[in-house]
Amino acid sequence: MERLEQRPKSKGGRPAKAVRREKQSGLRFTVAEYTTVKEKAAAAGLPFTVYLRKMALKGQVKARQTSEEKQTVKQLIGMASNVNQMVKMARQQGFLSAIVFFEQYRQTLDQIINQLKDDK
Hints:
Elements: H1 31-44, H2 48-58, H3 67-93, H4 95-119
């Protein structure tokens, strides 16, 4: 009799997760509560279930950056490159001529920092 060679079966699909969530929990909402939680999850930029899990485990969810905050970060990045250019200019022309520019940038940075503090 011939003997068939046995090969290990290849498992298709994605690899198994390192930590598997094995337990489920049901949660009931009124329509108003459900809508409120859905809106909060959307505002945080998270799927509904991820939002619920984070709220249950940590008690708070940090929302994603708004478009205004992203714009402020871009402004800060642009200011950083301008500061480097001013440092170069200060070394070439003297530090006294650059003091005025640095003072303007300091005031602008103070305004941006205060905006970010007020948002939090």
